[in-house]
Amino acid sequence: MRIVSVNNTADLYGASRCLERLAARLVGGGHDVLVVVPTAGPLKEALELSGVTVLLHPLLSIVDRNTTRTWRGRLILLLTFPLSVAWLALVILRFRADLVHTNSGVVLSPAFAARLAGRPHVWHVREFFLEFPHLWCHYERLMYRMSAAIIAISQSVRRQFSPEVRGKVSVVYDGLPRDDFDRAAIVGETHVLRHRLGLDGRLSACVVGRLKWTRKGQEVLIRAAGRLKAKYPTAMYLVVGTAAPGSESHLQRFTALAAELGVADNVVFTGDLPDPRPVYAAVDVSVVPSVDPEPFGCVVIESMALETPVVGSGSAGIAEQIVHGETGLLFPPGDDRALAAALDLLFAEAATRSRMASRGRQRYLDTFEMEHSYDEHIKVFDAVRRRTPTRHDSTEEIAAR
Hints:
Blueprint: E1 2-6, H1 14-28, E2 32-37, H2 42-49, E3 53-56, H3 65-68, H4 71-95, E4 99-102, H5 109-117, E5 121-125, H6 133-145, E6 149-152, H7 155-159, H8 163-166, E7 169-171, H9 187-197, E8 204-208, H10 218-228, E9 236-240, H11 249-260, E10 267-271, H12 277-282, E11 285-288, H13 298-305, E12 310-313, H14 316-321, E13 328-331, H15 336-348, H16 350-368, H17 370-387, H18 395-400
Parallel strand pairs: 1-2, 1-4, 2-3, 4-5, 5-6, 6-7, 8-9, 8-11, 9-10, 11-12, 12-13
Helix pairs in contact: 4-5, 10-15, 13-16
């Protein structure tokens, strides 16, 4: 199968990492994959190492807050949209693609380019849109009309679609390759990291993700650290990640909060790390404290895969992954008191940590391992291709399917 996939960023956070893993597995399965990204960046480098062809498309039409909040941004979007559609249609035809896959709900032009090129389109929705109810009711119908199938990354994401659209939406969880998430394989890197960050002999927790005040919830973990300071004076809390462009002030707010609560020496801001896996393996607890609902949140399954118990805010996609009391603990979003209580339980009981770590690993293997995810993606792609033969197929090829 020949697949053109379009991604809205060139970074290696969240959805981009999921695309990189899926594309690499598709190539490993004998498929030809071309990925289009707006700029050069870490995603391009990672994809090319996996044998994926990458093209840059600076005019890619992306519908987000940055492009729609000003008249100038809207005008640029309006003017570049037809150019983006035409360019992508040519890429699709030259690559002789069997289908087009858009790896985000905020990218518009690939769906129209696929229609223009006569190829089926699969829209991979990784976001929530219900905060824009008046626009969403129209946008979901556009997705329905312009897609042969829609993939949602969780049941929570699927539920945002209205019943008449939902029939076209399949839930496919993101997955992680088993060989890449073997704790024993990274023991050396884990030991080095623990020593470098001063974690030896100390209880520790981490939060991994973009630094976003009130959205990703790093401030909730810092406040919980303040509550636990007296009981666990030497505990360490790693905040891994950087702020998105334009949000650099968020780091200053987090550091100021840590100083105000007297935990500046306990909270370590590591910045981006090239490989987050040793972080999960190095700490006692992984925390996913998102205040806004997470569509899925791969940090949860990354932690479980590396046998680290997870404490996560109990909403949307996070709650679909964690079995409360079995593979981790859930707490109300934004409730630093409840997060502190959950951390206290796990810090105090090594046996509970060990039990949840083991059960979390098993849940990952049973539900979120890459082969499960890959098989489900292939089912969707195959079904779409069988329903919509592409123009370059011969009569014999179509009959042979």
